[in-house]
Specification:
The protein is an alpha/beta fold and 424 residues long. The protein has helices spanning 57-60, 171-178, 227-231, 254-268, 270-273, 289-300, 317-327, 369-377, 383-396, 398-404; strands at residues 5-11, 44-49, 63-65, 85-90, 93-97, 103-107, 113-117, 148-155, 161-164, 196-201, 207-212, 239-245, 277-282, 305-308, 356-360, 363-367, 412-415, 418-421. The protein has a six-stranded mixed β-sheet, sandwiched between helices.
Length: 424
Protein backbone atom coordinates (compact mmCIF):
# COMPACT_ATOMS: atom_id res chain seq x y z
CA UNK A 1 0.00 0.00 0.00
CA UNK A 2 1.28 3.47 -0.90
CA UNK A 3 1.07 5.99 1.93
CA UNK A 4 2.33 9.53 1.37
CA UNK A 5 1.18 11.14 4.63
CA UNK A 6 1.53 10.24 8.29
CA UNK A 7 1.16 11.95 11.66
CA UNK A 8 3.43 10.81 14.47
CA UNK A 9 4.65 11.79 17.94
CA UNK A 10 8.35 12.07 18.81
CA UNK A 11 10.04 12.75 22.14
CA UNK A 12 13.67 13.19 23.04
CA UNK A 13 14.93 11.34 26.09
CA UNK A 14 14.73 13.02 29.50
CA UNK A 15 17.99 13.97 31.15
CA UNK A 16 19.18 11.92 34.10
CA UNK A 17 18.99 13.35 37.62
CA UNK A 18 22.04 14.73 39.38
CA UNK A 19 23.24 12.94 42.50
CA UNK A 20 23.57 14.16 46.09
CA UNK A 21 26.64 12.52 47.60
CA UNK A 22 29.64 13.32 49.80
CA UNK A 23 33.12 11.92 49.96
CA UNK A 24 33.46 9.47 52.87
CA UNK A 25 37.03 8.22 52.53
CA UNK A 26 38.69 7.54 55.86
CA UNK A 27 41.66 9.86 55.30
CA UNK A 28 39.82 12.69 53.53
CA UNK A 29 38.37 14.87 56.28
CA UNK A 30 35.62 17.21 55.16
CA UNK A 31 35.73 15.61 51.72
CA UNK A 32 32.94 17.74 50.38
CA UNK A 33 30.15 17.07 47.89
CA UNK A 34 30.78 14.52 45.14
CA UNK A 35 27.43 14.07 43.39
CA UNK A 36 27.84 13.68 39.63
CA UNK A 37 25.65 15.11 36.88
CA UNK A 38 22.97 13.14 35.09
CA UNK A 39 23.45 12.14 31.47
CA UNK A 40 21.83 13.93 28.55
CA UNK A 41 18.77 12.31 27.00
CA UNK A 42 18.97 10.81 23.52
CA UNK A 43 17.82 12.61 20.38
CA UNK A 44 15.28 11.48 17.78
CA UNK A 45 16.99 11.70 14.39
CA UNK A 46 15.41 11.23 10.95
CA UNK A 47 17.62 9.79 8.20
CA UNK A 48 16.61 9.86 4.52
CA UNK A 49 16.79 6.41 2.92
CA UNK A 50 16.46 6.00 -0.85
CA UNK A 51 15.45 2.37 -0.31
CA UNK A 52 12.09 3.42 1.17
CA UNK A 53 9.22 4.39 -1.10
CA UNK A 54 6.28 4.89 1.25
CA UNK A 55 5.37 6.07 4.76
CA UNK A 56 3.42 2.89 5.50
CA UNK A 57 5.60 2.01 8.52
CA UNK A 58 4.40 5.14 10.29
CA UNK A 59 0.81 3.98 10.01
CA UNK A 60 1.53 1.14 12.43
CA UNK A 61 4.03 2.80 14.75
CA UNK A 62 3.21 6.39 15.63
CA UNK A 63 5.24 7.02 18.80
CA UNK A 64 9.03 7.39 18.83
CA UNK A 65 10.88 8.07 22.07
CA UNK A 66 14.64 8.18 22.63
CA UNK A 67 16.31 6.75 25.74
CA UNK A 68 16.70 8.86 28.86
CA UNK A 69 20.08 9.68 30.37
CA UNK A 70 21.38 7.75 33.35
CA UNK A 71 21.41 9.35 36.80
CA UNK A 72 24.60 10.76 38.26
CA UNK A 73 26.41 8.88 41.02
CA UNK A 74 28.77 9.54 43.88
CA UNK A 75 32.50 10.15 43.46
CA UNK A 76 31.64 12.74 40.79
CA UNK A 77 30.61 10.04 38.32
CA UNK A 78 28.38 11.46 35.60
CA UNK A 79 25.51 9.44 34.18
CA UNK A 80 25.75 7.97 30.69
CA UNK A 81 23.93 9.84 27.91
CA UNK A 82 20.86 8.16 26.46
CA UNK A 83 21.06 6.42 23.10
CA UNK A 84 19.84 8.43 20.13
CA UNK A 85 16.92 6.99 18.17
CA UNK A 86 17.50 6.92 14.41
CA UNK A 87 14.37 6.67 12.25
CA UNK A 88 14.65 6.07 8.50
CA UNK A 89 12.22 7.87 6.22
CA UNK A 90 11.89 7.96 2.41
CA UNK A 91 13.92 10.45 0.40
CA UNK A 92 11.59 13.28 -0.59
CA UNK A 93 9.83 13.56 2.78
CA UNK A 94 8.89 16.96 4.17
CA UNK A 95 8.80 17.07 7.99
CA UNK A 96 6.41 19.61 9.55
CA UNK A 97 5.41 20.51 13.07
CA UNK A 98 1.78 19.38 13.10
CA UNK A 99 0.77 22.00 15.67
CA UNK A 100 2.36 25.11 14.12
CA UNK A 101 2.77 24.16 10.44
CA UNK A 102 6.49 25.04 10.62
CA UNK A 103 8.63 23.13 8.13
CA UNK A 104 11.44 21.47 10.08
CA UNK A 105 13.18 19.67 7.23
CA UNK A 106 12.93 18.66 3.59
CA UNK A 107 15.03 15.54 3.08
CA UNK A 108 15.92 15.17 -0.59
CA UNK A 109 19.26 13.33 -0.48
CA UNK A 110 20.11 9.81 0.64
CA UNK A 111 21.71 9.86 4.09
CA UNK A 112 20.54 13.38 4.92
CA UNK A 113 19.85 13.74 8.66
CA UNK A 114 17.80 16.05 10.85
CA UNK A 115 17.22 16.14 14.62
CA UNK A 116 13.47 16.41 15.21
CA UNK A 117 13.49 16.13 19.02
CA UNK A 118 16.44 17.00 21.24
CA UNK A 119 17.11 15.20 24.48
CA UNK A 120 17.00 17.06 27.78
CA UNK A 121 20.23 17.98 29.54
CA UNK A 122 21.22 16.07 32.63
CA UNK A 123 20.54 17.56 36.04
CA UNK A 124 23.50 18.93 37.98
CA UNK A 125 24.82 17.02 40.99
CA UNK A 126 25.39 18.68 44.35
CA UNK A 127 29.11 19.10 43.60
CA UNK A 128 28.07 21.84 41.16
CA UNK A 129 26.37 23.87 43.90
CA UNK A 130 29.28 24.18 46.31
CA UNK A 131 30.23 27.78 47.02
CA UNK A 132 32.17 29.82 49.55
CA UNK A 133 29.01 30.23 51.60
CA UNK A 134 27.77 26.64 51.23
CA UNK A 135 30.49 24.01 51.51
CA UNK A 136 28.10 21.07 51.84
CA UNK A 137 25.09 21.62 49.54
CA UNK A 138 22.37 19.00 49.57
CA UNK A 139 20.67 20.32 46.44
CA UNK A 140 20.73 18.70 42.98
CA UNK A 141 18.57 18.85 39.87
CA UNK A 142 16.30 16.44 38.12
CA UNK A 143 17.01 15.98 34.44
CA UNK A 144 15.49 18.34 31.89
CA UNK A 145 12.52 16.83 30.02
CA UNK A 146 13.20 15.88 26.42
CA UNK A 147 11.70 17.90 23.58
CA UNK A 148 8.43 16.50 22.27
CA UNK A 149 6.52 17.21 19.08
CA UNK A 150 3.64 16.08 16.94
CA UNK A 151 4.94 15.77 13.38
CA UNK A 152 3.28 15.62 10.00
CA UNK A 153 5.24 13.73 7.35
CA UNK A 154 4.49 14.39 3.68
CA UNK A 155 6.17 12.37 0.95
CA UNK A 156 6.70 14.14 -2.37
CA UNK A 157 7.96 11.81 -5.07
CA UNK A 158 11.33 12.56 -6.63
CA UNK A 159 10.87 12.30 -10.38
CA UNK A 160 12.27 14.10 -13.42
CA UNK A 161 9.02 14.09 -15.38
CA UNK A 162 5.45 14.26 -14.14
CA UNK A 163 2.43 13.16 -16.20
CA UNK A 164 -0.62 15.32 -15.50
CA UNK A 165 -4.05 15.52 -17.08
CA UNK A 166 -7.71 14.70 -16.63
CA UNK A 167 -8.76 11.18 -15.63
CA UNK A 168 -8.79 8.53 -18.37
CA UNK A 169 -6.59 10.43 -20.85
CA UNK A 170 -4.06 7.59 -21.02
CA UNK A 171 -1.34 8.54 -18.53
CA UNK A 172 -1.04 5.05 -17.07
CA UNK A 173 -0.86 3.47 -20.54
CA UNK A 174 1.88 5.90 -21.53
CA UNK A 175 4.03 5.15 -18.47
CA UNK A 176 3.55 1.42 -18.99
CA UNK A 177 4.75 1.83 -22.59
CA UNK A 178 7.83 3.95 -21.95
CA UNK A 179 9.01 2.26 -18.72
CA UNK A 180 8.79 -1.01 -16.81
CA UNK A 181 6.05 0.32 -14.52
CA UNK A 182 2.89 -1.77 -14.46
CA UNK A 183 0.07 0.44 -13.22
CA UNK A 184 -3.55 -0.66 -13.21
CA UNK A 185 -5.16 0.26 -16.52
CA UNK A 186 -8.90 0.28 -17.17
CA UNK A 187 -11.46 2.28 -19.13
CA UNK A 188 -12.96 4.23 -16.24
CA UNK A 189 -12.14 7.37 -14.31
CA UNK A 190 -9.69 7.34 -11.41
CA UNK A 191 -8.29 3.92 -12.20
CA UNK A 192 -5.03 5.28 -10.77
CA UNK A 193 -5.45 6.31 -7.15
CA UNK A 194 -1.79 6.58 -6.17
CA UNK A 195 1.23 7.94 -8.07
CA UNK A 196 3.30 5.42 -10.02
CA UNK A 197 7.01 5.75 -10.73
CA UNK A 198 8.78 4.35 -13.77
CA UNK A 199 12.35 4.53 -15.07
CA UNK A 200 12.68 5.32 -18.77
CA UNK A 201 15.87 3.78 -20.21
CA UNK A 202 17.12 4.94 -23.61
CA UNK A 203 19.27 3.02 -26.05
CA UNK A 204 22.30 5.23 -25.43
CA UNK A 205 22.27 4.35 -21.73
CA UNK A 206 20.61 7.52 -20.48
CA UNK A 207 17.60 7.29 -18.20
CA UNK A 208 15.14 9.43 -16.29
CA UNK A 209 12.33 8.89 -13.79
CA UNK A 210 8.73 9.60 -14.70
CA UNK A 211 5.77 9.83 -12.31
CA UNK A 212 2.18 9.09 -13.30
CA UNK A 213 0.13 11.55 -11.23
CA UNK A 214 -3.49 10.43 -10.67
CA UNK A 215 -6.09 12.33 -12.69
CA UNK A 216 -6.74 15.93 -11.72
CA UNK A 217 -10.13 17.60 -11.93
CA UNK A 218 -11.30 21.19 -11.89
CA UNK A 219 -10.87 22.59 -8.39
CA UNK A 220 -7.90 20.33 -7.60
CA UNK A 221 -5.94 23.26 -6.14
CA UNK A 222 -8.59 23.58 -3.42
CA UNK A 223 -8.34 19.88 -2.60
CA UNK A 224 -11.23 18.68 -4.77
CA UNK A 225 -10.83 15.07 -5.82
CA UNK A 226 -7.78 14.61 -3.53
CA UNK A 227 -6.18 17.42 -5.49
CA UNK A 228 -3.66 18.44 -2.83
CA UNK A 229 -2.49 14.86 -2.38
CA UNK A 230 -1.92 14.48 -6.14
CA UNK A 231 -0.51 17.93 -6.92
CA UNK A 232 2.04 17.59 -4.13
CA UNK A 233 3.89 14.97 -6.19
CA UNK A 234 4.41 17.34 -9.12
CA UNK A 235 6.36 19.87 -7.04
CA UNK A 236 9.75 18.21 -7.48
CA UNK A 237 9.46 17.36 -11.18
CA UNK A 238 11.60 19.34 -13.63
CA UNK A 239 9.44 18.70 -16.69
CA UNK A 240 5.70 18.14 -17.10
CA UNK A 241 4.00 15.96 -19.71
CA UNK A 242 0.52 17.46 -20.06
CA UNK A 243 -1.49 14.55 -21.48
CA UNK A 244 -4.63 15.37 -23.47
CA UNK A 245 -7.34 13.15 -24.93
CA UNK A 246 -6.93 14.72 -28.36
CA UNK A 247 -9.77 12.65 -29.80
CA UNK A 248 -12.26 14.02 -27.28
CA UNK A 249 -13.43 10.48 -26.54
CA UNK A 250 -14.75 11.61 -23.15
CA UNK A 251 -16.87 14.26 -24.92
CA UNK A 252 -14.56 16.97 -23.61
CA UNK A 253 -12.73 19.62 -25.60
CA UNK A 254 -8.93 19.02 -25.34
CA UNK A 255 -8.20 22.76 -25.60
CA UNK A 256 -10.54 23.45 -22.70
CA UNK A 257 -8.97 20.56 -20.74
CA UNK A 258 -5.53 22.10 -21.21
CA UNK A 259 -6.66 25.49 -19.95
CA UNK A 260 -8.39 24.00 -16.90
CA UNK A 261 -5.39 21.92 -15.78
CA UNK A 262 -2.97 24.79 -16.49
CA UNK A 263 -5.10 27.02 -14.25
CA UNK A 264 -5.13 24.38 -11.51
CA UNK A 265 -1.33 24.26 -11.56
CA UNK A 266 -1.17 28.06 -11.41
CA UNK A 267 -3.61 28.27 -8.53
CA UNK A 268 -1.68 25.62 -6.59
CA UNK A 269 1.71 27.28 -7.17
CA UNK A 270 2.91 29.90 -9.60
CA UNK A 271 6.34 28.25 -9.67
CA UNK A 272 4.74 24.96 -10.67
CA UNK A 273 2.81 26.73 -13.44
CA UNK A 274 6.10 28.05 -14.84
CA UNK A 275 7.63 24.57 -15.09
CA UNK A 276 8.53 23.51 -18.67
CA UNK A 277 5.68 21.60 -20.34
CA UNK A 278 5.49 19.21 -23.29
CA UNK A 279 1.94 18.66 -24.55
CA UNK A 280 1.21 15.00 -25.24
CA UNK A 281 -1.72 14.70 -27.66
CA UNK A 282 -2.77 11.11 -26.94
CA UNK A 283 -5.29 8.81 -28.66
CA UNK A 284 -4.28 9.82 -32.18
CA UNK A 285 -5.55 6.42 -33.36
CA UNK A 286 -9.19 7.42 -32.69
CA UNK A 287 -11.26 9.20 -35.38
CA UNK A 288 -11.58 12.95 -34.85
CA UNK A 289 -8.09 13.31 -33.38
CA UNK A 290 -6.58 14.98 -36.48
CA UNK A 291 -9.08 17.85 -36.46
CA UNK A 292 -8.53 18.54 -32.76
CA UNK A 293 -4.75 18.33 -33.19
CA UNK A 294 -4.92 21.02 -35.87
CA UNK A 295 -6.98 23.27 -33.58
CA UNK A 296 -4.55 22.64 -30.71
CA UNK A 297 -1.53 23.43 -32.88
CA UNK A 298 -3.06 26.65 -34.15
CA UNK A 299 -3.88 27.77 -30.61
CA UNK A 300 -0.82 26.59 -28.65
CA UNK A 301 1.78 25.56 -31.19
CA UNK A 302 3.81 28.76 -30.88
CA UNK A 303 4.13 28.46 -27.09
CA UNK A 304 4.45 24.70 -26.53
CA UNK A 305 5.94 21.66 -28.23
CA UNK A 306 3.14 19.26 -29.12
CA UNK A 307 3.72 15.51 -29.56
CA UNK A 308 0.94 13.54 -31.24
CA UNK A 309 1.07 9.99 -29.82
CA UNK A 310 -0.99 6.86 -29.45
CA UNK A 311 -0.33 5.05 -26.19
CA UNK A 312 -2.40 2.11 -27.50
CA UNK A 313 -0.15 1.53 -30.54
CA UNK A 314 3.08 3.14 -29.32
CA UNK A 315 3.10 5.68 -32.16
CA UNK A 316 5.12 8.84 -31.36
CA UNK A 317 6.31 7.72 -27.91
CA UNK A 318 9.95 7.28 -28.95
CA UNK A 319 10.13 10.86 -30.20
CA UNK A 320 8.52 12.04 -26.93
CA UNK A 321 10.99 10.32 -24.58
CA UNK A 322 14.03 11.39 -26.60
CA UNK A 323 12.79 14.98 -26.59
CA UNK A 324 12.42 14.77 -22.81
CA UNK A 325 15.89 13.24 -22.40
CA UNK A 326 17.38 16.08 -24.46
CA UNK A 327 15.52 18.79 -22.54
CA UNK A 328 16.09 17.57 -18.97
CA UNK A 329 19.84 18.38 -18.68
CA UNK A 330 19.08 21.99 -19.56
CA UNK A 331 16.35 22.36 -16.91
CA UNK A 332 17.63 23.24 -13.42
CA UNK A 333 16.36 21.27 -10.47
CA UNK A 334 13.34 23.03 -8.95
CA UNK A 335 13.88 25.05 -5.81
CA UNK A 336 12.40 23.54 -2.70
CA UNK A 337 9.17 25.37 -2.12
CA UNK A 338 5.82 25.06 -0.42
CA UNK A 339 2.39 25.81 -1.74
CA UNK A 340 1.84 28.98 0.25
CA UNK A 341 4.95 30.88 1.27
CA UNK A 342 3.08 32.93 3.85
CA UNK A 343 1.56 29.81 5.41
CA UNK A 344 4.96 28.42 6.44
CA UNK A 345 7.06 31.55 6.83
CA UNK A 346 9.51 31.04 9.68
CA UNK A 347 9.81 33.82 12.20
CA UNK A 348 11.87 34.03 15.35
CA UNK A 349 9.51 35.17 18.05
CA UNK A 350 10.36 35.99 21.66
CA UNK A 351 7.74 36.04 24.37
CA UNK A 352 7.23 39.51 25.89
CA UNK A 353 7.03 37.95 29.38
CA UNK A 354 8.87 35.04 30.97
CA UNK A 355 5.66 33.79 32.59
CA UNK A 356 1.91 34.33 32.69
CA UNK A 357 -0.18 34.69 35.84
CA UNK A 358 -3.90 33.88 35.81
CA UNK A 359 -6.66 32.94 38.27
CA UNK A 360 -8.60 29.67 38.17
CA UNK A 361 -11.09 29.55 41.00
CA UNK A 362 -9.14 29.67 44.26
CA UNK A 363 -5.82 29.08 42.54
CA UNK A 364 -3.19 31.47 41.26
CA UNK A 365 -1.85 29.72 38.14
CA UNK A 366 1.67 30.47 36.91
CA UNK A 367 2.52 29.21 33.42
CA UNK A 368 5.43 29.57 31.05
CA UNK A 369 8.05 27.31 29.52
CA UNK A 370 10.91 28.56 31.71
CA UNK A 371 9.22 28.29 35.09
CA UNK A 372 7.63 24.94 34.22
CA UNK A 373 11.07 23.57 33.34
CA UNK A 374 12.38 24.71 36.74
CA UNK A 375 9.51 22.89 38.44
CA UNK A 376 10.29 19.66 36.60
CA UNK A 377 14.00 19.90 37.45
CA UNK A 378 13.62 20.78 41.15
CA UNK A 379 13.91 18.11 43.85
CA UNK A 380 11.19 19.29 46.22
CA UNK A 381 11.87 16.52 48.72
CA UNK A 382 15.07 18.33 49.74
CA UNK A 383 14.98 21.52 51.76
CA UNK A 384 17.82 23.06 49.74
CA UNK A 385 15.95 22.29 46.53
CA UNK A 386 12.81 24.04 47.75
CA UNK A 387 14.83 27.02 48.96
CA UNK A 388 16.56 27.29 45.57
CA UNK A 389 13.20 27.16 43.76
CA UNK A 390 11.91 30.02 45.91
CA UNK A 391 14.93 32.08 44.90
CA UNK A 392 14.21 31.29 41.24
CA UNK A 393 10.63 32.56 41.62
CA UNK A 394 11.97 35.72 43.18
CA UNK A 395 14.61 36.26 40.49
CA UNK A 396 12.04 35.77 37.71
CA UNK A 397 9.69 38.34 39.26
CA UNK A 398 6.97 35.80 40.00
CA UNK A 399 6.97 36.48 43.73
CA UNK A 400 6.42 40.22 43.14
CA UNK A 401 3.68 39.51 40.57
CA UNK A 402 1.80 37.30 43.05
CA UNK A 403 2.03 39.95 45.76
CA UNK A 404 0.77 42.57 43.32
CA UNK A 405 -2.22 40.33 42.59
CA UNK A 406 -3.05 40.28 46.30
CA UNK A 407 -1.93 36.80 47.29
CA UNK A 408 -2.25 36.06 51.02
CA UNK A 409 -0.85 33.47 53.40
CA UNK A 410 -2.62 30.17 52.83
CA UNK A 411 -3.60 30.88 49.21
CA UNK A 412 -2.89 28.17 46.63
CA UNK A 413 -0.51 28.47 43.70
CA UNK A 414 -0.35 25.96 40.84
CA UNK A 415 2.69 25.63 38.56
CA UNK A 416 3.09 22.83 36.01
CA UNK A 417 0.39 20.78 37.73
CA UNK A 418 1.99 21.02 41.19
CA UNK A 419 0.16 22.86 43.97
CA UNK A 420 1.91 25.10 46.51
CA UNK A 421 0.66 26.94 49.57
CA UNK A 422 1.80 30.54 49.91
CA UNK A 423 3.73 31.45 53.03
CA UNK A 424 5.60 34.54 54.13
Amino acid sequence: MFYDQAKIYVKGGDGGAGAVAFRREKYVPEGGPSGGDGGRGGKVIFIADEGLRTLVDFRYKRHYKADRGEHGQGKNMHGKSGEDMSVRIPVGTVVKDADTGEILADLIEHGQKVVVANGGRGGRGNARFMSNTNKAPTVAENGEPGEERNLLLELKLLADVGLVGFPNVGKSTIISRISAAKPKIADYHFTTLVPNLGVVELEDGESFVVADIPGLIEGAHTGAGLGHEFLRHTERTRLIFHVLDIAGSEERDPLEDFQIIAEELRQYSQELANRPILIVANKMDIPGAEENLQRLTEKLGEDYRIFPVSAATGEGLKELVYAAAKALPEIPAPQIFVRDEEQHKLTQASAPHRFELTREGDFFVVSGKEVEKHVQMTMFDREDGLYRFQNILKAMGIERALLDEGIKVGDKVRIAGIEFEWEE
